Amino acid sequence: MTPPDPLRDLELLIRSRYGLIQLPSDDEPRIHSLLEHVADRLEIPYFSWSRVTGLQRPGQPGPVYGTEQLETAFSHINSARAAGLYHFHEVAPDLEDAKQAARLKAAAESLRAHEGAVVLSGAVAGLPNVLEKVSATVHLPGPSAEDFKDLIRQILRDIHARNPVEVNLSSEELTILVGHLSGLTLFEAEKILTKAIIEDGRLAAGDIQHVIDAKRAVIEKDGLLEYYPVDLSVEDIADLKGFKSWLAKRTAVVTNPGKAGEFGLAFPKGVLLVGVPGCGKSLSAKAVAAEWRLPLLRLDPSNLYNKFIGESERNFKRAMTASERMAPVVLWIDELEKAFSSGGGEDGGVSQRILGSFLNWMQERRGDVFVVATANDVAKLPPEFLRKGRFDEIFYVDLPDGQTRIDILDIHLSARGCDSKTFDLHEVAVATAGFSGSEIEQAIVSGLYTAFAEGRSLDQELLISEVAATNPLSVTMAEKVTAIREWAQGRAVPAN
What we know:
Blueprint (H helix, E strand, L loop, with lengths): L5 H10 L4 E4 L4 H15 L3 E5 L3 E3 L13 H11 L3 E6 L8 H15 L3 E6 L7 H4 L2 E3 L7 H16 L5 E3 L2 H11 L4 H15 L1 E3 L3 H15 L2 E4 L12 H15 L1 H6 L7 E6 L5 H12 L3 E4 L11 H16 L2 E5 L16 H15 L4 E7 L17 E5 L4 H14 L9 H7 L5 H17 L6 H9 L4 H4 L1 H11 L4 E2 L2
Parallel strand pairs: 1-5, 1-6, 2-4, 4-5, 7-8, 10-13, 10-14, 11-12, 12-13, 14-15
Antiparallel strand pairs: 2-3, 9-11
Helix pairs in contact: 1-2, 3-4, 6-8, 9-13, 13-14, 15-16, 15-17, 17-18
């Protein structure tokens, strides 16, 4: 596959008389360098606009008089009737004003008669329809791994010239650090790494967390994705042997992507986990992040939907862009069917449009984003999700068997300070037949509440009593559990 060449693409679009081009990137230094290069090749003047100076040519003594206001800058371009490349950064909010959008359209159309274009950079998703129709988009690839390695060497040289710096990174740890820098601009990466090195005078594996924390701040600021700290491992999950084995075979691909690429292996796409509620599907998403030492983001589909026309689709694009920026990362989408239920048109087609965007993103994503999607009611999922190749694998998570229930009891009793050796776990496991993992946990919690209220310790008798008072989903929703099991036969890989 031919790597993207924004220089070639921009030159081709301008020669093809595209007067308006979107360049969705925040890396201003690289954008300026790229556009200056394009202008030089086309032998046309290059102008960059800011709210302080207005339109200005790099290296020239002063800006174009009176172009500090956006409307006057657009009017100048329209009236100049001459070739030129004009760059505007982060002006999308201004273009929600219909008059501003009309002025920009007129300026772009005037450039079609000459060799030139208006380039919009920054957050340009969701431009007014009148501008989307007449614009083209060019994507600026992020800095490469070699770019980041060069930056690290440069920072170390600069700091070492003033103070000694200790470097304590293995080759694998350097690869992981560079991987986590992905999605940042070189300027952002420089600030984060410089701060981390100056704090203790060294560059070590612990500085990987500085990068993750910096990206976390970006995610939390936007509010569409939730950052989940990971404080468990796959060993904390009882059973799911099939799923754990699948993960283990791909760990080396994630931790050593360079070598995997030479072997012809790409970053995994993701998995769909279906099954009975409370059987560990959500816990598995956290375990994936822990096993692969990646940040975990959670997408709550309800955060996407907005009453204003077009805002829901715009929110989705922002969320996916944010996840790619955080890459490499695990993106957890819980209860997928609630966001993309098939057969509903009550929302005016919004969910279907987001579904289409999501499926397209899964095929075309630019960052290493591993999707862990969970579903309790697979019958409500659109068939597009179940097509072979959409996910790397579809796993079915069933109710725990006897030995697994013993393991779950041991884990949750020990986690709450109870000595599991004082319980007959086999007897409790028999009594909890048909229970999910979360129902077993809740029985223990309920027993502890009762014990605390009565001023006693949790014992075998009290725990069995709480179990007997619980009606599990396998009883209250027996038909649905049976339907899920029947669907999974031949369609999904057993996770247990």
